[in-house]
Structures
1.
Amino acid sequence: MPTYKAPVADTLFVLNDVLGYERYANLPGFSDAGPDVLEAILEEAARLAENVMHPLNRVGDEQGCTRNADGSVTTPKGFKEAYDQYREGGWMGLSVPAEYGGQGLPYAVHTALGEYLSSANMALMMYPGLTQGAIAAILAHGSDEQKQTFVPKMTDGVWTGTMNLTEPHCGTDLGMLRTKAVPAGDGSYKISGQKIFISAGEHDMSENIIHLVLARIEGAPEGVKGISLFIVPKFKLDADGNPGERNAVSCGSIEEKMGIHGNSTCVMNYDEAEGFLIGQENGGLKAMFVMMNEARLGVGLQGLSMGEIAYQNAVAYARERIQGRSLSGPKAPDKKADPIIVHPDIRRKLMVMRAFNEAGRALVLWTALKSDVAHRSGDENDRQTADDLLGLMTPIIKGVLTDKGFEHAVMAQQVFGGHGYIEEHGMSQFVRDARIAQIYEGANGIQALDLVGRKLALNGGRAVQAFFKEVGDFCEENRADEKMAPFTKALKKGLNDLQAATMWLMQNAMQKPDNAGAASTDYLHLFGLVALGYMWARMVKVAQEKIEAGAATPLHETKLVTARYFMERVMPETGAHLARISAGADSMMALAEDAF
C-alpha cells in the first residue's frame, strides 16, 4: 500500500530561508501567519493529509462515483466525512478575505498546504479546489450582491463551485460554444445547453453547487467576443438566500475516465436553468480567466504533488527491494542481493524526481508570493512587477510541472518493475491520476502557445526582461564565490540558451508563425529548466551559508548534492531545446496531410 509524508521541513526551508517569508510581514494577512503560526498550520495540514485524506485515495480509485436514478451522485465511501473535516477546519477559507468569512491568510500558505492535500488525495481535493477558483471569479467580477450572496457560503464550504466551459464540439476553442442565455425579463437568464468534462459537477458533499457557466446571450457577436459568464446554482435561492427548489440543471452522466475516479467528472445538461450574469455582457471570457488562471496554477501544483508522492513510494521500495549486486561490490553482504537503490540507473530515476520536485516546490511558492504581492501590496510598481511575473510563470508552472509530474509517476512505476504494474502497489493510480493534469485547464500545447504567442510580447516584453535581469543579476552577484561557481555557471549557460531562443523567436516567428508553434513546447521547457535552475541556485546559496555558519542540518547537505545533480545532468538539456527551436518548422510542416 502506498504511503505519504508531507514535506513540511522542506516547505519551511523554502519559505523562511530561501524566499524570505518574514520580509512580506507588511502585507495584509502575513502578520497573522508569522513563522511560528505558519509552521503550526503546515503541521496541522500535514496531519489532515496523511491521516484523513490519503487513506481514502485508493478507496476513491476503486469505488469511483455513482450516478443514481434521480441524477444525483454519490461520492466514494468516506469522502463526505473527510470533506466535512476539511470544511469544519476552516481550510476552504484560509486565504479568502475576512469580510466574506475567510481568514485572509497569504495565498502562499494556501499553496504550501495545498500540495500536501493534493498529494494525499488529488481526486477528493478537486471538489474544494474548483470552489476556490469560483470564489476568485465572483470576488473579481461579481456584483456586491452576488459576493454577499454566494461567497460566504462557499468560503464556509457548505456550498461548492464549478467551472463550465467545454462542450462536446469545442474544447479550447470557446468561440464555438453553443450554450445560450435568453433574458427572462426579471434580471435573470434562461441557460440552455450541454457542458462536458465538468469536474465536481454533481455530488453529495455540499448543500448547493454554484456553477459558473459560459454561454452566449441571444444576439451576441459570434466568437469569443460574444461570450458571457453566468452563475447557475444547483438549487435556486429562496427569499432568505437559502437553497430552495431544484434548478433545471442536471448530471446526464459521469464520464468514464482513465483516473481521478473519486471525482465526479460530469456531463451537465442545462434546460432553461435560471442563471445570473456575472460581470459585463460579452465579458465572460475575461471573468472566467480569473478562475482559469487560478486553476492553472492549481493544476501545476497537482503535477508537483503527484510527482512527490510517486517519488516517496519509489524511494521506499528501492530501499527494501533486493535484486542483483552493486557494480562496485556487495553493499549488503549479509543478504542474497543488494537493495536496488545501490544501482546507478535506479539512482538516476530517484535523483531526477527529487531534483524536479524540490525545485518545483520552490518555484510554485515563489510564484505564490508574487500573487500575494500583486493582490495585497500598497505599492503600484511592486504590484505591477509581481503581476507581470505571475502571468509569465502561470503557463510554465502548469505545463512543465504537469508534464514532469506524469513523467515522474511513470518513472517511479518503473522503479517498482513488474510490481509497479500491479494495482495493489498503487503506482498505477499515480500514473493514471497524473495524466489528466497535462490535459485540463488548457492542454500543455496551449500553455506553450500562450507563453510564446502572448506572454513574451506582453507590455513590450516587460515580464520576460525582468526575469532575465533577475536571474542574470543573481549570477553576476555570486560570480566571485568559488563555492557557487558550479551552480551559477550552469545557470548562466541555461539563461544564455533561453535568451538565444527568445531572440530566435523574435527574428523568425513574425514572418513565419509556424516557427513559433513548432518552437513553443521546447521553449516552454527551456524556460522551465532555467526557472527551476534559478530556484536551485538560490537554495544552494542559503545552504552554503548555513554550512559556513555551523548551522547545517542533513537537509542543507542534501540540497547541495541534489543541486549539483540538477546542474550537471538536467540543466544541459537547455542546449537540446535551443537546437530544436532553432531548426524551425520546415521539417515539421513539410508532409502533406494525407501523407501521415
2.
Amino acid sequence: MDWTRRDLGKLSVGAGMAALLPPALPRRAAAEDTVIAHGVSAFGDLKYPAGFERFAYATPGAPIGGTFSTGYGGITFDSVNGFVIKGNPAIGLSITYDTLMVRADDEPDAVYGLIAESIEYPADRSWAAFALRPEARFRDGSPVTAEDVKFSFDVLLEKGHPQYAVLLNGVTGATVEGERRIRFDFAPDTPKRDMPMTVASLPVLQKAWFETRDFAEATLEPIMTSGPYEIDAAALSPGRSITYRRRADYWGWDVPAMRGFWHFDAIRFEYFRDRSAQFEAFKAGSFSFNEEFWSKLWATGYDFPAVNRGDILRSELPDERPAGTQGYWFNLRREKFQDPRVRQAIAETFDFEWSNRTLFFDLYTRTDSFFEGGPMQAEGKPTPEELAVLEPLADILPPGVLDDPAYVPPVTDGSGRNRRNLRRAARLLDEAGWKVDGDVRRNAAGEPLEIEFLSDSPSFDRITIPYTEQLQRIGVKATARRVDAAQYKRREDDYDFDIIVDRKGMSSTPGVELRAYFHSASAEAKGTQNLSGVSDPAVDALIEVITKAENRETLTAAVRALDRVLRAMHIWIPQWSKAKHTLAYWDIYGVPDPATKPKYNRGVIDRWWFDAEKAARFGDKFTG
C-alpha cells in the first residue's frame, strides 16, 4: 500500500503479472512454533520461493537513463512531507523511501523483503518481528537500524496524519530487540490477519534527521530517506514541478524485490492550473507521458499533428484490479442528510445514461458496488454464505438487506429528461418531510433543502451543473462550487462540505483499510478517508468479520455482505468506471510486452525505460 497522500497508488515499488515460479513454502523455526520467511500474505500463500531472483514482471537489462515526465492538472503542492495533515504533499514521494517489505503486484496481498530480509511470526500472528538487512542505508550512508523503524512507527502515531492511527489501531507497540531486529506486538482483541503486512508497509525514516526538525510540519526540505530516488532540490518549484533523481548509490538495487525496476535517471511531475492547460502542454512536448482520464479528450482530442505523424502513440492497457468506488459522497454529519430517503432521492436524480452518452462517448459503465468489478461485488439476493454473516445483525441492518436484491441505481432512457426518476425522487423527499413550497422544498421548520457540490476541478463542471439543474426541477436548491486546491483540501480535511467527489481504490484482499473508509473509529478524526462519516454498528461488525476471515471464501461472503449494507444506506451517488488505462506518450520509451503487465498495477513508471535512439529524432526536446 502507498502511505503518502495524493500518490494515487500508481507508484508502488513492485508490480506484476504471471510468473511461472513454484509456490513458496515458508519454513518453521526449529526452536518454537513460528514462521520465518522472506515474505508474508494474508492467507499464507506466497508465489515466490526463498532465494527468488526477481519478480516475473520486472524488466531486467533495460538501459538506465533519460527522463520520464508527466503532468497533473487542477492540483498543487507546497510540501514534500506526505506523512502529516499539514500542507499539500507532492506527487510521487513514495519512490524516495523504503519500507520493510514491498508488495508483489502479481499476487493479491503478498509482500516480500526490502529493508527486512525476513519476517518471523507465530501461528496466531500476535506479533511480527523483522530482521533488517545489514546493507540497508539512508542516502547519507548511515545504516537503517531498528531504532529508525521504531521511531518511524512512534512518530507516525504521535504526529502523523490521523489516518495512521486508524490503520495502526491494534498495534500495541514496537520493540527494538537488537540493532537490526524490530518486533511489533498486536492487541489480543485486534484482527491480526493483515497486521504483519500493515507494519511491513510503513515508511522507514531516519530518527537522527528529525531530532532537529518538527515532524508535524509541512516542509520543502527533502526528508532523509533510503529509497531509489531522491528529490532534486535545485529543480524543485513549489506548485509547479518536482523532479526525482535516480540514486546510482542506492543500496537496494540487488534486492530481489527491486531488481529490474526503476530505469529512468529522472522522473518529473509538472503541475498545471487545469487539465486543459495540461493537455496543451503535453501536445507541445512539455512532458512526454499522459494517462488520459477525460473521456471527451480521449474520444475527440487526439486528432492533432504529433499523433497523426506517429510522434505520439496511444494505447489501452487492461486494468484488472477491482475498480473500487468513485462517486459523489454525502456528508452524513449534516442533519439534512440523516434520512436515507433524502440521500436516495438525490442519488436517483443523477442521469448517468445521459452523461455517458452525451459527455463520455459511452466509454464508461455505471458503478453499482463499493467493490465494483471483482468477486467481492454483491449481486442479486444474499447467498446462504452471506446470510450466515448478516443474520446475526438482523436487528441493526437497513431495511431489505436480508430479503431484497442488492441496491442498484435506476437506469434511464438517456434522454436527459429523466421524468420517471424525478417523480420517484420527489415522492421520497415528500415522505422524508421535505415538501414543495413554491419552487423550493422545505422541512417542517421552514428550512430550504440546499446542497452544494464541492470540487476543485473544472472537468467536473460539465457533469455536476446539469445534475444540479435536474435537482432544481424537484425543488432542491442545488449548486456546484469550485474552489482552489488549497481551500478544497482544508474543507475536505475539516468535513466542511455537503457532497464531494472521491474515488476509493479497493484491495483484492479487503481488510484493515476498510476501517479508514467506513468504520466509526474514523468518522470524526480530522482528515480521514471516511468522508461520509459512516458510523454504524452493523458496518463496524462486518469490518471486524472481514479482518478476521481466515480464508478467501469467508472473506468474500463477508465483503459482499458489507457491500449490501453500504449500498442500502445510500451514502454515495455512484458514478462510473472503465476497466482499462488509456495512455498517450511521445514515442521515446521502451515499452515491455503488454502480456507482462502486472495484474494489480499499471506497470509503467517502474518498468518502462528511455529509448535514446527513438528520442534522438526529436532533438533535445526530451533530454532534460
